[in-house]
Specification:
Elements lengths: L2 H7 L2 H14 L2 H7 L5 H8 L3 H29 L2 H20 L3 H29 L2 H33 L2 H21 L13 H12 L2 H31 L7 H22 L6 H24 L3 H28 L6 H24 L8 H21 L6
Helix pairs in contact: 2-7, 2-8, 2-9, 3-8, 4-5, 5-7, 5-15, 6-7, 6-9, 7-8, 8-12, 11-14, 11-15, 11-16, 12-14, 13-14, 13-16
Length: 404
Amino acid sequence: MTESKIRAEITGLWRIELIALFGILTVFTPIGIDLYLPALPTIAREFGTPIADIEHSLAAFFLGLCVGQVMIGPLSDRFGRRWPILIGLLLYIVGGAACALAQGPLTLDAARFVQAIGCCVPTVLARACVRDLFPPQQAARIFAQMLLILSVSPLFAPFVGGWLLPLTGWRSLFWLQVGAAALTWGFVWWLLPESHPGSDRRLHPLHVLKDYWVIVRDRRFFRFIIPGMLTNAGLFVFLTGWPHVVIDIFHVRPEYFGFTFVLNGIGLIVFSQSAARWLKTHPGEPLFCAALLANAAAGVLALAFGFTGWGALLGLLPFTFVYCAMIGTINATGSGLAMHHFGHAAGMASALIGVLLYGGGALASALMGAFVTPTTPVPLTGLMALFGIAGAATYLLFRPRPAG
């Protein structure tokens, strides 16, 4: 069946089912990151290893997301959408089961890497399927509906993980992901048509790397993405180290961990959506600069409160909220500014942004994991402040000088 015939037949209940399915496909990445965060200290105790060794599993996950995004774009253009999504979900299932059965940090790291490669496939290709199957005016509304599902999932995942942890153990969190992916695989097989017939696109690695290099070396691109990558690295430091700070240092029970996490997620979502609205009628660069400076200031204040101990956990929460909220603005604004001159290669530019953000996140997460068993929030807040300052400094450094 041709793409135009499929478009004509997508009506009524099938249309609703497909939109719901696309929304579900986008949540596997945030669920894979956030659901097991409250369990990190518990896993470390069970394996008899420092928390840093378990935090490396997050770095492995971010690295898998980076590798997966590099691969899936060209592969899906070459072979279509449906079978890559089905194979990606199978990888997610295999990786999740291996996580649940892991007997040590290294096997957990390897399993998380496989799981991440699997989960980025449905997340990326769900958006591609919408572009394939729906006309532009409908696709915009569908993306908004998908974004709602995507935005809500990271807020509830730490709550679910925290409450299930004492009841069923940490391994059940991965079995839950395996079950959800298996159920989704069945719905994809049943509901999703092939939306893209494939092409004769060249898949030689050197050809793909050359296309990426042309974009990354353009000053109009990297002057916005490098600051965004650095501040986003601070977010991944927060995701990696925050469970240890909350549960082990401030002795908050895992089932209540989500309450310290949810406000930061809400801030990130609200400010990213506010930035999108602002950009419709205002220039983006002043907002980008202001968000970078606010992010850096929040990181420095978080470090000050973490170093002195003022207010304990409550003293940190306002600054982690501002830090994460500003990253929502930075990512939304910086991505738009970076892609402004690359309409002819929007897909490649978008994929490259994802690669740089997740690649930087993997390195930052590994750096946070280098601190074996921190006894204060200083390593966490210090790295957040460092990346925040570096993000603002690189933007100022790369900013064009006035003529004359």
